[in-house]
Structures are given as C-alpha cells and as structure tokens.
Design brief:
- The complex is a heterodimer.
- By secondary structure, chain A is mainly α.
- Chain A contains 19 helices and no strands.
- In chain A, helix 3 crosses helix 6.
- Chain B starts with a helix and ends with a helix.
- By secondary structure, chain B is mostly helical.
- In chain B, helix 1 runs antiparallel to helix 2.
- The chains are: A mainly alpha, B mainly alpha.
- The A-B interface holds A 136, 139-141, 290-291, 294-295, 297-298, 300, 302-303, 306-307, 319-320, 322-323, 359 and B 31-33, 35-36, 38-39, 42-43, 49-52, 54.
Chain lengths: 503, 75
C-alpha cells in the first residue's frame, strides 16, 4: 500500500513538471526509494554507478584517442577487466565470502569468523545490468553515456531495481530521456497490470507459500505425497511471486511511459528445459547468453577445443560438445547467481546438464521417433513434452528451495517413501497450515491463472481485448480483481516480501 | 568470397549457398552451425567476431557474411 502511494506520488510529480525534467524526477524518486531501504546501502549503489560510468567513459576515450589497433585493443581490455573486477569483486565479497569462509573452515578444520555484511537489496540485478552495459560499450554496441546523472538513472530506476528485469541500455535510455505526456489508457494499463501482479502474489504465491514453508522447513517430518504436493506448491509460489512481481514492476514502469523487457512467457507450457529458460526469467537467460555463453563459445580455446572434438567424435557430435560444455558453465553461473550455496550450484548444474544431454542425444532422439513411428508434431506428443518438462522443472525445485543440498537429496528420497494418493483425500494436507477454504481459493486462483496463460499462449493480447469491451465490463473485471486482493489475499508469509528481491 | 563458400559447404553440404538469402530466416543453419562458422571465419581471416556481430542479418547469406568479414578486417 505504501508502495502504491509512493508510485502515485512519483507519477503525480512526473506529469505536472515540464517534460524535459521528467527523468530527474525518476532519478530522485529512485534514490529516495533505495535510501528508504537503508541509507548505508546507497554507498554500494553509488559505487557500481560511478565505477561503471568511469570505466565505460575511459573505454570510449581510448576508442577515440588511441590509433594503434593492437594498443587500443589491449588497453580497452585492461579497463574492461578493471571495471568487471571492481564490480563483480564487490558482489563476490558481499555475497560469497561467507560461503568461501565456511567451506574453508570445514575443509581445514579452522574457525575463521564469518563477515557480517548486509547484502544490499537488488545488488545482483543492478550489478549484472551495469556490467552488461560496460561490456556493450567495450564491444562498441553503443557509446558510453556522458551524463553521470542520466547513467545513474539507468542503474537505479526504482521499479526494476530490486528484482529486475535486467535491462539493456540501448532499449531503455531513449525511453528514460524522451518526454512523456500523460496518457490515461497507458496509466490504466499500468495499474491493471500491477493489480494482476498483486493478485498472483497475494492470492496465489503467499497462500501456496504456507505449505512450502511448513514442509521444507521441517523436512524430516514429511514424506511421500506430502513432499510432492509441497514441491508443486512451490511451483505455484515461485511463479506467482516472481512473475507477479514482474507484472507489478512492468505495470509501474508503464505508468511512467517506460516499457521494460518481459521476463516471463508462460514458462510452464515449455516443451523442453531449453525452451523453459527462454520463457522463465528471460532477461537473466539472455544476459547469460550474450555475456557468458557467446564469449566462451567464441573464445580461441573453445574454437580449438571444437576442432579437436570434431576430429575425435565426427562432425555431428563434435560440434555439439563445445556448446554442451559452454551450457554447463553458463548454468553453473546461473546457479551461483542465485546464491552462495552448494544447492544452487547443483540447481545450475542440473539445468545445464539436462540441456547438454538433450543437445547430445538429439540425433538418437530423431532416430527413435522414426523407429517407433512417433509423430513429433502431434498435439499428444506436444502435451507429453510439456508434462515431461514440468516434471523436470519440479525436480529442480528440490535444489532451489530445500534448506541445503543434503536436505534436497533427503527430500527426494522421502518423496518415494510411503507414497500414496490417499494423502490427497484423507485430510492430512489440511494439517499443513492451510484450511480447506484456502485450498479452494488456491484452486480457483490457479484456474484463473491457467485460463489467462492459455489465452496468452494463443497469442491473444488480453488487455487489448479488454479495451474493446464496454467500459462497464472492463470495470467489473477490475473491480473483481481489486476486491479479490483484500478478500482472498489475507495471508502474509514473512512480511510479504518478494523472493527474488533477496538475490 | 570463394573461401566463405568453401567454409559453408564444409559445415553443411547440399545447400545452395551462392543464392540462398535466408540461411537463418529459413532455418537452414542452426545455432551449432553458426558457432562453427564463426570459429572457421576467425581462423581463415584472422578476425575477431564478437557477440554483437551475431545477428541474423549477418548470417543470412554468403554475401552478408563476406560483408561482415570485410568490415571486421578493416576494423
């Protein structure tokens, strides 16, 4: 509610002042927003802003002043490495030093004290966004921004600061700095999208989260179907929380006339793990593709390695192996990005290994289709693929949500102990903190979400369709959505914060 | 230009690389092929291809590949 008032206040000022100052209002409100979370944290935000601004400008000046090709390349590279080290170094220090210390301690029986850092909100997001910008300047995709305040807005734009989407300078800058006049339809769309996001968050995610918290928090007490049900609940919770959070973020940005990149595209309808990562947390995936996957795949050593594998394994398999290796590296980074813990590394490895296997086994797969006469274009097979992917994704959640890597394996084993469908009907699920009424609300909410997803998957723009309806119908839909929030969204877990804001 | 046609032929035979204008748009080359082509071009012309260059418009035809190579040789 406070956030909504903050947004409305910012929007009010934004549209009454002369349009050429609008971006300054966004910057001011962004810094107020971040300072409200903790004034000390501003230091880290400023650190990233200034070091990235400085190194990018430096690369730009080398581009102009140095004429010798070799010298230009090597000094640009040195500045890039400096910028990356400063920023990823800071991120590493804050986020990963305790992980390193505790592993070192247990490995060598030492007892070094853990560091007591508060992790700045959204640091993983704004660091990645800034480093993407720096690398783009290095590659010459665009020139460095000259105005430090304008650049500061790119790093700190408050809707996306905490949980993304991870933005790109070339798609955002012109939107920030052009003049926006008040457009009622756009503001209505923005508010609409925010409400839809809060619906997913408050009605679905927070409700499903009650069971997740109970079962995963006391994992040794539960087995069989109860564990499987909790994992399924986590599918609902995480999607509702993150995708709902994104709808809020994109809705807020839309109120200011700014279109951020989409982060989700019906991920649970994916037909493979590769497809899943094209639909889930899309901006992290494209960041990884552009700034980790390509640089690794295009590197000289990978080129050599690729030639070697082609010689040994033949053209078909040989060309796939380097890509498979690069994918595993990328997903290890994705795992580490989520947090400093072995379970996240396993989460990354699991995804990378599945994609690598799928690539390597593609020819076998094709052969199998021919032998067994499976029509891979049929609807039935499409459905099988969706269900298979959903199952594989749910297995990955064990690593994501369990309290530790050991716990995730223990819970996988426990799932198969005493597994019976009777658990669903004998009332034992009602002892996990949710009343029968809540299960009904959850089921109804999921049905609404599913219906919306199916319509979107068919390529229908729901908002445009809604715009064409009479105002009375439109406002009934809004009213139902808005009323559903206080009526059904009364459950709050852990203060109602968003999961991804912690990364 | 002939060198580029040789490289393409080596990576995927049986395609009319001389005339085809939609190598990417018509799904003739996949992502594995593109990475192989990049590796071969870098070696053959002593150039550095960065992710910025990996866009469909550069890979849609032998001519567009040749244009990219020439541009990178001058850079």
């Amino acid at each position: 509610m406070e956030f909504l008032l903050f947004v409305l206040a910012a929007a009010f000022v934004y549209y009454i002042i002369p349009a050429r100052y609008q971006w300054m209002i966004l910057l001011a409100f962004s810094y107020i927003f971040y300072a409200a979370a903790g004034i000390k944290l501003l230091f880290f935000l400023l650190f990233t802003t200034l070091t990235t601004y400085g190194t990018a400008r430096w690369i730009d000046s080398v581009n102009i002043s140095v004429t010798d090709k070799k010298e230009k390349k090597s000094s640009k590279r040195r500045i890039l490495i400096l910028g990356l080290l400063l920023n990823f170094g800071m991120l590493g220090l804050l986020k990963y030093s305790n992980f390193a210390i505790s592993n070192f301690n247990s490995l060598f029986q030492k007892n070094f004290a853990l560091l007591n850092f508060a992790l700045p909100l959204g640091i993983s997001f704004y660091t990645f966004q800034s480093m993407g910008y720096l690398i783009d300047v290095y590659w010459g995709r665009f020139r460095a921004e000259r105005n430090p305040f304008r650049f500061a807005l790119f790093v700190s734009f408050f809707p996306q600061l905490l949980q993304g989407p991870i933005g790109r300078f070339d798609r955002l800058a012109h939107q920030f700095f052009e003049e926006h006049s008040f457009d009622l339809t756009r503001v209505e769309h923005g508010l609409q999208r925010m409400m839809w996001g809060y619906f997913q968050k408050l009605v679905l995610a927070d409700r499903a989260g009650v069971i997740v918290k109970e079962v995963f928090g006391n994992y040794s007490d539960y087995h069989g179907m109860t564990v499987a049900a909790a994992v399924l609940m986590y599918s609902i919770q995480l999607y509702g929380d993150f995708s709902g959070g994104m709808d809020v973020v994109l809705g807020v940005a839309e109120i200011f006339g700014i279109t951020l990149d989409e982060n989700f595209r019906q991920p649970y309808f994916s037909i493979s793990i590769t497809d899943f990562w094209h639909r889930w947390h899309i901006t992290l995936g494209t960041w990884m593709k552009d700034y980790i996957f390509y640089p690794i795949s295009l590197s000289h050593w990978m080129n050599r390695f690729g030639k070697y594998t082609k010689k040994i394994f033949g053209k078909q398999t040989g060309r796939v192996i380097p890509v498979a290796l690069a994918n595993i590296i990328v997903f290890l980074v994705v795992g580490i990005w989520h947090g400093a813990a072995w379970k996240y590394l396993m989460y990354g490895f699991y995804n990378g290994a599945l994609i690598a296997l799928a690539n390597l086994l593609a020819p076998v797969n094709r052969r199998a289709f021919e032998v067994f006469h499976i029509d891979d274009k049929s609807r039935a097979w499409h459905l099988v693929r969706i269900l298979r992917t959903f199952l594989l994704v749910n297995i990955s959640w064990y690593f994501d949500i369990a309290v530790s890597l050991g716990a995730s394996f223990a819970m996988m084993r426990a799932t198969f102990q005493g597994f019976t469908f009777r658990t669903l009907t004998d009332g034992s699920l009602l002892n996990l903190g949710l009343a029968a009424r809540d299960f009904v609300i959850l089921a109804f909410g999921c049905a609404v979400l599913f219906a919306v997803s199916v319509i979107r998957e068919k390529g229908v723009d729901i908002r445009e369709a809604l715009d064409r309806k009479p105002a009375a119908v439109r406002w009934c839909a809004y009213l139902a959505l808005i009323l559903s929030l206080p009526v059904f969204g009364y459950i709050m877990v852990g203060g109602g914060g968003f999961i991804y804001a912690q990364f | 230009m002939d060198k580029i046609l040789d490289i393409l032929e080596e990576i995927k035979s049986g395609v009319d690389f001389k005339n085809e204008k939609g190598l990417i748009d018509n799904d003739i080359l996949d992502s594995f092929d593109i990475l192989s082509i990049v590796g071969e071009l870098e070696d053959a012309f002593d150039i550095e291809i960065t992710p910025v260059d990996i866009v469909p418009s550069n890979f849609n035809s032998a001519e567009s590949l040749w244009a990219m190579v020439q541009r990178l040789m001058e850079a």
